[in-house]
Amino acid sequence: MIKQATQIALDAGEILIEKRAAGLTIEHKGSIDLVTDADRASEKYIVEQLKKSFPHHGILGEEGTRVEGSSDFLWVIDPIDGTTNFAHGFPYFSISLGLLRGDEVVLGVVYNPVTKECFAAELGSGAFLNGERISVSKIETLHESLLASGFPYDIATTKEDNIKSFEIATKVSQGVRCLGSAALDLCHVAAGRLEGFWELSLHPWDIAAGSIVVTEAGGRVSGCRGQKFRPLGHEVCASNGRVHDELLALLTGVEP
Ligand code: IPD
Ligand code: CA
Ligand code: CA
After folding, report:
1. Which residues contact 154 (CB under 8 A, 6 or more apart)?
2. Higher pLDDT, residue 33 or 182
3. Residue 256 pLDDT more than 70?
4. What CA–CA distance (Å, rounded) separates 150 from 134?
5. Among 32, 186, 202, which is best to mutate for testing ligand 1, by the most ligand atoms less than 8 A from CB?
6. Active-site residue, from 81, 199, 216, 235
């Protein structure tokens, strides 16, 4: 299944690059939440391919796909994670395909078609970047860490705006990047390029695939207050494991 999922992600990546070169149609889903014709074309392609290869599997896609399967497998897909970057020509976005069996993520593929980096992991088999095994970093403290986070689309109105946590984490670490693709951010934790990443107000398609890449690379995922990670939930705190408790203490100590 990982071979098929990887091929589908690579082909969807080609669609994104072609669409971007041809010129995009950009619409607003919310005041700062964009969607392009490429998001829809990528999802359509991915769903067609998944249906062909796995006719009994369910599919949940950001751009509206809801396929009820006749097995306990569910694909959770984001046709472009990082649409704002994509629409601006900022080269940090990805295609994210996660596969759940019941409540558990069993496979994840995250592909950046600009850098041509493809992250993949299968339960119990390790995590890979373009076929080479990857693992999380060995850094032990937040003081030595490079972190990433992000802000919700309703930042202007929500109380859970993540600003206070971002401020504190920035002051105790070597920096907190706000890069714009949660799926890729998770994979950079897996590859040892970041020590930690957290974000609230996300969706299953942002976090399912990347979460297994982190855990299979030896890292840890949880909710932002230390609760069990839920792939069909809305938040994630991911790390190399070594800085996890320190990061959770910081996030838990912040008043919303
Ligand atoms: C977004 C990205 C971004 C995160 C947003 C997500 P989208 O996904 O993952 O990094 O900060 O919360 O919604 O909308 O580009 O698929
Ligand atoms: Ca997304
Ligand atoms: Ca998306």
Report:
1. 30, 201
2. 182
3. no
4. 24
5. 202
6. 81
pTM exceeds 0.85 for this model: yes
Chain centre to alpha carbon of residue 91: 16
Domains of the chain: 2-133 (3.30.540.10), 142-252 (3.40.190.80)
Q: Report pLDDT for 254.
A: 80
Could you give the CA distance from residue 163 to residue 77 in angstroms, rounded to a whole number? 28
Active site annotation includes 37: no
pLDDT single digits (tens) 12-37 = 999 999 999 988 888 898 888 888 89
User: Tokens standing for 79?
Assistant: 């046709």
Write a three-state SS string for 33-58: CEEEHHHHHHHHHHHHHHHHHCCCCE
pLDDT of residue 154: 87
CA–CA gap between residue 174 and residue 18 (Å, rounded): 37
Would you say 28 and 87 are in contact if contact means Cβ atoms under 8 Å apart?
no
Structure token pair of residue 123: 């339960």
The whole-angstrom separation of Cα 38 and Cα 23 is: 10
Contact status, residue 161 vs residue 132, Cβ threshold 8 Å: no
- CB of 80 within 8 A of CB of 13? no
- Catalytic site includes residue 78: yes
User: To which H or E segment does residue 70 belong?
Assistant: none
> Which residues, 6 or more positions from 254, have their beta carbon under 8 angstroms from its beta carbon?
164, 165, 168
